[in-house]
From TrEMBL:
Pyridoxamine 5'-phosphate oxidase Alr4036 family FMN-binding domain location: 9-123
Name of this protein: Pyridoxamine 5'-phosphate oxidase Alr4036 family FMN-binding domain-containing protein
Originating species: Rhodotorula taiwanensis
InterPro entries: Pyridox_Oxase_Alr4036_FMN-bd, Split_barrel_FMN-bd
Pfam families xref list: Pyridox_oxase_2
Biased composition (Polar residues): 136-150
Gene3D superfamilies the UniProt entry points to: Electron Transport, Fmn-binding Protein, Chain A
Amino acid sequence: MTPTAKQLPAWVDQLRNLLNKNMKENKDLISYALATQGPERQPRVRYVVHRGFVNERRKEGDGSQNLVADDDKNDLISDKLVVTTDTRSPKARQLAAAPQIELAWWMAATQHQFRVVGNAYILPSSAFTKHDSSEPRTTGNDGANTSSDKISFPFPEKELSPYDGFNWEDERIRQFRKMSPELRASFYRPVPGTDLQDADLKMEDLPEKLPEGVEEAESEEQKKQVEQGLSLRQDRYLLRSPQLMSYYTAALKNFALIVIDASEVDLVDLGSMPNTRTQWLRKRDAADWEEKGVVP
Ligand SMILES: Cc1cc2nc3c(=O)[nH]c(=O)nc-3n(C[C@H](O)[C@H](O)[C@H](O)COP(=O)(O)O)c2cc1C
């Protein structure tokens, strides 16, 4: 049966529209501060880049088998925000232990602040979670890292999906493929946050870029040939050099999505006079939201 797009809360449309306006003025406004809980429940915060809502895509033909829109041409997205990260990073460990987050996003061009409270979940590579601790540990940075492979990452797949039967591994790979070659290469590096001196691999020996076949093409004709053979699960889009190919595979293994399930959204508009402030609260055990104006 063809899925039908979910009714999205009003804040999703507001966020998408405001982000469009802000991005036209300044591309850096795509980042927000994401706070998690440290092991002693202390706040930890860092900037991250908004990578859209789950399955938010402009077109088909990007290799993902997931559907873009329903029969009435409504986008099959959910109201869950996506961030990309390294499964081995401290924030991934923090979220595995405590999913509670808050984010603050200042959209300076239009003078709006979004704050979102909710839970965030790590979607790692399936290869990553299947790693069996009885297997011998690899000493190199081949993706079987030293700090996270015994961690389990709870991921309430069904609640986070835009429709039943959504393929999460396709979504993860789609996001990895959208990264720049430089960013992809960062997922091959030693464990983030560990001492540079302890790293088995020297940073200067690692590739600076992990391009794909399309990005490596030397002519328009070659590019077309690669694109024609494009399929998410085929190696044809990948690299010609076996060495780079193995880096690519290891980097993809470390790559994870953070999926944010909001329960409260607070929007302050400092651009209007008088200022306005709107809050949305998700009703307990329900998909619908309550909206109210509050004093700024
Ligand atoms: C503007 C900006 C955007 C960033 N985006 C991300 C991101 O999307 N994902 C990420 O893991 N780190 C991102 N970082 C790096 C993080 O802020 C942080 O330094 C790093 O991920 C380590 O965080 P952790 O120790 O809390 O895991 C970004 C940093 C800046 C300054």
